[in-house]
Amino acid sequence: MFGSLLSVTSSDLRVRFAPSPTGMFHVGNARSVLFNWVLARQSGGTMVLRIEDTDAARNRPEWVQGILDAMEWLGIGPSEYEGPLFQSDYAPQHREAIDRLLAAGRAYYCDCTRDQVIARTGSEHKGYDGFCRDRAQSDGEGRALRFRTPDDGSTVIVDLVRGKPTFDNKLIEDFVIARGDGSPVFLLANVVDDMVMGITHVIRAEEHLPNAPKQQLLWEALGAEPPVWVHAPILVNEKRQKLSKRRDRVALEDFRAEGYLAGAMRNYLMLLGWAPSGDREILPWDDIVAEFRLEDVNPSPAFFDVKKLRAFNGDYIRALSVEAFIEACQPWLSAEAAPWRPEAYDADAFAAVAELAQTRIAVLSEIVPMVDFLFLDEPVTDEAAWTKAMKAEAPVLLAAVVEAYETCEWQAEVLKSTLEAIGAERGLKLGKAQAPVRVAVTGRTVGLPLFESIEILGRERTVARLRAALDRLS
């Protein structure tokens, strides 16, 4: 099984994305799969999708589907990768590797408990002390299998991002490669899977760098050439803390649900640790694929700035054609989650305001409060906005607007000039005069251009809302 792998050359580039189906799809995973995918596309190589599903207690089928869905949303459909392959299907190869390491004297069984190790070393912080190295124990219940690390020398990791990190072998403890029940741990299973699948380049997050010397020793012990290592910078929050799913917004699904565009997310994630030539950040995907080089990735931690991502998304939204924008908004407008009755949605009315709304939102979900006044029977009133807008002069002004709007030409410019004149008679500039009208009609002090909005809303509904505001004020 392993002999055939030794013929893999750099011209047969194969990378892999190997997530565990144990939760939502982390933006760090999204960045990793994009780096792998881009490298495969550049070289004409292959990206393998491997689901590391051996943690049966935490794995769930829906998380596997979530991985596939997240990748497809990013643009990485089934035709873009080999798989999905499942780590659990490679148990025979894991067992074969264990047997080979045992036969070569590179592994041994150990029955030490953690408490025993601490008692011998006198410290909770020291690693395993090699107590069972020469006890020649056989397989038995509760006996883990440890890899025997070299006593001297060093292990050099040739990393395209980090140079040549060097690890003193005597400081690498004899680490466990199989549990007491015989099942392989991540370190061994990961290596064997990469060997069997012919992986030539391992591109992953910096947090795996401490595993690299151990895994490279396993590659060498199994008689294979180690892969090209690439450890991309970790993603951190505004406090420069590593992103945590318990503390930070990190689930790709949440950003998608909020209305981030896949193109914007893809573009932004590629810039976390890498920058294109020139003073550019937003650029076509084909340009990113053409320019990206692993050697140019900065090893420093990369700040996952949600505010900047939001700005990127706003730019991507504004770059859509109006027709594409209308289509992109549909999940928020016609889904069951929309706050209006399904039959109240008017596609023509939305199309009429779409271009106005497109320049005013940064994520697609913001379209709902922007246009809900068109489709709700009554507007959702922001009480703070009501209090601010409904000053002492509001009742008189609204009464005059009602009278004028009942008969004037129903066209945005006429509606504007009419209100402007009513305000001027009372010493109010248009901004002050339109505030109570806007809140009465839309429920808010900010939103789409007022007069275009009420033209589309129509005379009957506009006047009815103005009268309802008057009734409330009285």
TrEMBL record:
Pfam families attached to this UniProt entry: Anticodon_2, tRNA-synt_1c
PROSITE patterns with a match to the protein in the record: AA_TRNA_LIGASE_I
Extent of the signal sequence: none
Domain Glutamyl/glutaminyl-tRNA synthetase class Ib catalytic: 13-310
Summary of the function given for this chain in its UniProt record: Catalyzes the attachment of glutamate to tRNA(Glu) in a two-step reaction: glutamate is first activated by ATP to form Glu-AMP and then transferred to the acceptor end of tRNA(Glu).
Residues annotated as binding ATP: 245
Gene Ontology terms for molecular function: ATP binding; glutamate-tRNA ligase activity; tRNA binding; zinc ion binding
Boundaries of every Aminoacyl-tRNA synthetase class I anticodon-binding domain copy: 325-470
UniProt motif 'KMSKS' region: location: 242-246
Alphabetical keyword list: Aminoacyl-tRNA synthetase, ATP-binding, Cytoplasm, Ligase, Metal-binding, Nucleotide-binding, Protein biosynthesis, Zinc
Family matches, as HAMAP family: Glu_tRNA_synth_type1
Reaction(s) catalysed by this chain's protein: tRNA(Glu) + L-glutamate + ATP = L-glutamyl-tRNA(Glu) + AMP + diphosphate
EC numbers, comma separated: 6.1.1.17
Co-factor(s): Zn(2+)
rRNA processing listed as a keyword: no
Localization per Swiss-Prot or TrEMBL: Cytoplasm
Record-level GO cellular component terms: cytosol
Subunit architecture: Monomer.
GO biological process: glutamyl-tRNA aminoacylation
The keyword Aminoacyl-tRNA synthetase is annotated on this UniProt entry: yes
Family assignment from sequence similarity: Belongs to the class-I aminoacyl-tRNA synthetase family. Glutamate--tRNA ligase type 1 subfamily.
Motif 'HIGH' region location, chain numbering: 19-29
Listed name of the protein: Glutamate--tRNA ligase
